[in-house]
Amino acid sequence: MELVNRIVNGDRRAVARAITMIENGSPEKHDVLKALHSYTGRAYLVGITGPPGAGKSTLTDQLLFLLRKQGLQVGVIAVDPTSPFTGGAILGDRVRMGSHALDPGVFIRSMGTRGSLGGLAKATKEATRVLDAYGVDVVLVETVGVGQSELDIMHVADTTVVVLNPTAGDHIQTMKAGIMEIADVFVINKSDLPGADKTEREVNNMLDLIHDFDWRPPVVRTTSRDPGTFRELWEACSNHRVFLQESGGWEKKRQKRRQDEIVGIIEERLHQKIREWIENHATWQQVLEEVESGKKDPYQVADLILECYNTSTCD
């Protein structure tokens, strides 16, 4: 397949086209992803999440400078809120990371959530596969910034970085049940501002209450005024990667990701097939009227549909 060959040979336009196909749900995307599969599995995926205003975009930008100085090829997927008018991302990647837009060693793509919850766009996982096959060393996935619901990133990333700011100290306990529990690395960003000490103390106090983790998430302080602090952040991420590889967690995590991906594909296809069957069934309107009148209940109808669909006995 020509598009696949172009991607694995480093054609940026082919990568952009493939991701657009994925976002738009093109039927061709399945053939492309199938063909790319054997070229994936090498990139290190780092998720960057946290509440709005924590400075995730600035942190991602600083990491890009650092990784490029190390000679690494980097892909970035920045998930933004969706415009209710165009369906696209409200914030553009080149607006926030314009200094990297023309760097051939960096590929940046903004993706609108398009109604998807969990902080990621529905197509994010598949887009990371394309970037992986393209040959990047690291993929940075920046979530939309909606707070406690941003849990999907843990199913995509090898290392999840949770970004907080110095004003977060008073809210650590309310956040604990959400994104606070998925962190592999904590970052107190804008740490030159008042309140950084308190926030760091609150995070460590929370971690002290947890006794069943093999990896205690380090708490790193960063500030754009001191680029060296981002080296400490990347070192913490790298240490987590080594920990996963040496403990066997690396393969377990990726195996779980592959399993979830397969189950997700099955669910998506079954959902689509059953919906198409329902919409094309001659007596469907009559069934709905029977549910409305109380002659049948929704659960009874669902069981009947599943039974006849699985046994191909529906007339």
TrEMBL record:
It comes from the Bacteria. Keywords: Chaperone, GTP-binding, Hydrolase, Nucleotide-binding. InterPro entries: GTPase/Isobutyryl-CoA_mutase, GTPase_ArgK, P-loop_NTPase. PANTHER family: LAO_AO TRANSPORT SYSTEM ATPASE (PTHR43087:SF1), LYSINE/ARGININE/ORNITHINE TRANSPORT SYSTEM KINASE (PTHR43087). Belongs to the SIMIBI class G3E GTPase family. ArgK/MeaB subfamily. This is Methylmalonyl Co-A mutase-associated GTPase MeaB. It comes from Effusibacillus consociatus. The lineage of its organism: Bacteria, Bacillati, Bacillota, Bacilli, Bacillales.
